[in-house]
């Protein structure tokens, strides 16, 4: 659902997707970090700012009182796992856009 919202034309929908990704999922949850990555290049500064916040180490880390809370807050996924996940997602998006473009072209040829 968040993937659908981050791709919408309305900035409020994209901002909502990023806010939900940041509020509901831990930093190690790769699909929500993908939403933040996509939003980080948004033309709307609110969306981009919130997205970047989701990709950074949280400020609560400095204020945390227990070691277990620090570990939970600071836990990020493995780097290789992250790269593999993002690579797969980007390739899927590219393939879907090419399929959509091909379908649009075929529909245009039929109509013409």
Report low-confidence residues grouped into runs of 5 or more.
105-112
Radius of gyration over C-alpha positions, nearest whole angstrom: 17 Å
Q: With helices defined by DSSP (H or I, 4 residues minimum), what is the helix count? A: 7
Number of strands: 0
Label the structural class: mainly alpha
Shape descriptor reads globular
How far apart are the first and last residues' alpha carbons, in Å? 35 Å
Give the biggest sheet. none
What is the helical fraction, as a range of percent? over 70%
Strand content: under 5%
Please trace the helix and strand order, writing H or E for each element: HHHHHHH
**What is the typical, i.e. mean, pLDDT?**
82
Number of structural units classed as domains: 2
Word description of this protein:
This protein is mainly α and 112 residues long. The chain folds into two domains: 1-77, no CATH class; 78-112. It is 76% helix and 0% strand. The protein is built from seven helices and no strands. α2 packs antiparallel against α3, α2 packs parallel to α4 (45-55) and α3 (30-39) runs antiparallel to α4.
């Amino acid at each position: 659902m968040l993937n659908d919202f981050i791709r919408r034309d309305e900035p409020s929908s994209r901002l909502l997707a990023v806010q939900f990704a940041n509020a509901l999922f831990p930093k190690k949850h790769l699909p929500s970090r993908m939403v933040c990555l996509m939003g980080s290049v948004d033309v709307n500064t609110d969306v981009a700012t919130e997205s970047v916040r989701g990709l950074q180490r949280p400020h609560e880390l400095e204020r945390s009182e227990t070691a277990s809370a620090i570990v939970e807050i600071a836990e990020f996924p493995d780097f290789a796992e992250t790269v593999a996940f993002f690579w797969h997602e980007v390739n899927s998006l590219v393939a879907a856009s090419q399929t959509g473009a091909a379908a649009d072209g075929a529909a245009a040829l039929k109509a013409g």
